[in-house]
Each structure stands twice: as C-alpha cells, then as structure tokens.
Amino acid sequence: xxxxxxxxxxxxxxxxxxxxxxxxxxxxxxxxxxxxxxxxxxxxxxxxxxxxxxxxxxxxxxxxxxxxxxxxxxxxxxxxxxxxxxxxxxxxxxxxxxxxxxxxxxxxxxxxxxxxxxxxxxxxxxxxxxxxxxxxxxxxxxxxxxxxxxxxxxxxxxxxxxxxxxxxxxxxxxxxxxxxxxxxxxxxxxxxxxxxxxxxxxxxxxxxxxxxxxxxxxxxxxxxxxxxxxxxxxxxxxxxxxxxxxxxxxxxxxxxxxxxxxxxxxxxxxxxxxxxxxxxxxxxxxxxxxxxxxxxxxxxxxxxxxxxxxxxxxxx
Length: 316
Description:
about 325 residues, 15-stranded antiparallel β-sheet, 1 helix, about 5% helix, about 50% strand
C-alpha cells in the first residue's frame, strides 16, 4: 500500500492544478452506470467481459445540436490482476466533430478486509475537425471565416484511481492530460478533474446507491448528485434474486435534472434511457435523450468465471 501513495499524490496534484482550455468534456447522464470514460480505474470489473454503449441526442429539434456516441469493452484477467479495455467516442456539435479512440489499462489490488484499490490509465488520440462549409454568415466576405475543413489530431491520456469497500466507492481522475497549458486555438478538450463518492447497499427487495460528484475544469465546477434504485425479482433459492428494473434521478448545480430508468432484458443484457431537462427560465426547453445498452459476456466465456460471486447483480 505504501508504494501506491506517491501515485495517488501525483493524481491529486493533477486534480487541483493547471491552466486549461475550456472546451467541455462529453456529457453523459448514464455515466453513473459506467465511469470508464473519465476514470480508467473503473474498468477493473472482475466477473465478466463487459460491453457498454450509449447514444446522447441533445436539444431535440434544434439543427446541428450535440450528439455523442460512446462504445466501450473491457475484461479483467484475474491472474494478472489487470483489466484491459477499448473505447471509442464520437462527438458532433455544430460545425465541429471529434473522435477519441482509447486503450485502457487498470491494475487491481484487494485484501481480505473487503476493500479494493484500482489504478488506471488510458492512452489514445483526440481528433477534432471544423467544417467551415456549415457556417451561415451574414457577411460571407468576412476574412475571419473559412470554408475549408480544418483538423487537428494529437495524443490523449487519462489517469485515475478508485477505492471500493462493501458500501462505498471513492474515485479521483483527470482526463485529457495533454491539454494542460495548451493554447485554445488547438481546439482540444480541456483537462477535467473528477472526484466522486458513491454509497451502495443491498436488501432482499432492491439494491440502491447514492452518489455525489464534483467536476472541475478551468474556472468552472459542476456538482452532481444521483440516486438509483434497482428492484429485484425473486427467482428461487438456487440462483437467488435478480435485478429487473431500475429508476434514478440526477440533479446538477447547473440547474438541470435527469430522470433515468433501466430494464434487464436478460440476466446479462440491460437497456436504459435518460431524459435531461433544464430548469432555468429562458434557456432552451428542448429535451435531451440518451439511450444505453449494457451486455455481459456469460461467465463461461470470461477469463475470471471462477471469481464470479454475485452473478445476478449488476456492477456499481
């Protein structure tokens, strides 16, 4: 444990410092189901090969509104105490489009007292393009405008740590490390710092969790709170209760509220939906919709099936 302390300290320093460019990170309401986008340590899920995807359409009815497509897959190798993952993000907003493919690695430690510590890092590229042909200018002769496609591609990296106990999850992470102190003309995503705490508990009839997260970039911070209930269906003493339906709510300090729900189609396949709404008067009231798909490869195909313990409950 003592050897890990310096790495946590370095991550903490990254979390609280640096000059940043204020391009926002992707916004996904269903990140509470999968934190791998902003904390690579979260992919250390020990029971299954895990596949996750979500699509977010923001401000329905507005032309060229933001649209995000996210895909992730990961597996934990028990003998190596390591998880390996792959992710791809496509983010379209107005005249800009970005893609962000990443490879992720996480190392997991645990002890008999019931806590686990995971350290993770992601590496890949971040590419953003601006298509000037979509501009609708009042003065087409304005020399500041351009009609060509401008594109920049640079390396990208995320780092994170996560600690889990029986009832709590604590996480710190920092994204887009190569954007630190970069000029805004590069059109990069800003370095973001995430810190969160999740309380989780199980009962005979449901599993539930409550979370709070602080996200900071440049001179802006957003506080977010969530609550989620996962109802169970008793299937008999042999395999125990299985989660079937979940509902949740999220509130952000930007005066936004999100309603979420999910349905277990099978014990290994879930679908989810989230709806965002801005409560502030004067802002666009066009809703934002998000669809989520989760799939776990059955344990016989996973390298860690001998470690499966609570096979009828989904991940936190």
